[in-house]
Write a structure and sequence with these properties.
Helix content is 78%, strand content 0%. By secondary structure, the chain is mainly alpha-helical. The chain has one domain. The longest helix is centred in the C-terminal third of the chain and has 25 residues.
Length: 64
């Protein structure tokens, strides 16, 4: 992809903004924990952190 060409696939866009996506997922997890400090909030937060972990691990495999 050249410097002037826009990303066209979900993978290209997600790769470009992965740091922002990971930040947003963690912010969401923190908000859920604060809104509901019980088990349900922790479970919901774990769901979003799991997504972030999968994305981060996939990026790590790409870099190898």
């Amino acid at each position: 992809m050249s410097d002037h060409q826009q990303p066209r696939t979900v993978a290209e866009i997600a790769g470009l903004y992965l740091g922002n996506i990971l930040y947003a997922l963690e912010t969401t997890a923190l908000a859920l924990e604060q809104r509901d400090p019980g088990a349900q909030g922790a479970e919901q937060a774990a769901f979003y952190r799991g997504i972030a972990r999968l994305l981060a691990e996939a990026r790590g495999r790409e870099k190898e």
